[in-house]
Design a protein that fits this description.
This protein is mainly β. The protein has 2 helices and 4 strands, in the order αββββα. It has helices at about 10, 125; strands at about 25-40, 55-65, 65-85, 90-105. Strands 1-4-3-2 form a 4-stranded antiparallel beta sheet. Strand 3 and strand 4 (about 90-105) form a beta hairpin.
Length: about 130
């Protein structure tokens, strides 16, 4: 198992209405990593595929102003790469991770120029 290091922007994400950060009540961050999958003896042949899952969800906060929703999506894509060593072949995964999130509803109004709440999205890709 390999864990990608979170980019600095995601190690502590705060939606701060006083400073209006992040701008527009939304954030998009990408990172890439090469993940070792396995070592293959030089005389062996292997067929492999990579399947990536990309979660999409939201969390709702209710307070005196109404409902504020944090929408988030983690899009994971990648490809398998073979590398040759002296007596082994190495199977690696080149992984790209795109994280998108934003607020909608009552609490998002503090982040907009006109003071109106951000509407809920049809998809996060349109918002990122």
């Amino acid at each position: 198992e390999h864990i990608l290091d979170a980019p600095p922007e995601l190690q502590r994400l705060v939606f701060d209405p006083k400073s209006r950060m992040p701008s527009g009540a939304r954030l998009a961050v990408s990172c890439q990593s090469q993940v070792p999958v396995m070592e293959i003896p030089g005389t062996s042949a292997v067929t492999a595929t990579l399947t990536c899952r990309s979660p999409l969800s939201s969390i709702t906060l209710k307070d005196e102003r109404g409902e504020t929703v944090l929408h988030y999506e983690l899009e994971v894509t990648g490809k398998l790469v073979a590398s040759q060593g002296k007596s082994f072949h190495y199977l690696l995964a080149d992984v790209n991770v795109d994280f998108r999130c934003f607020l909608s509803g009552a609490g998002s109004a503090s982040f907009t120029e006109d003071g109106r709440p951000v509407p809920a999205p049809q998809t996060l890709k349109q918002r990122g």
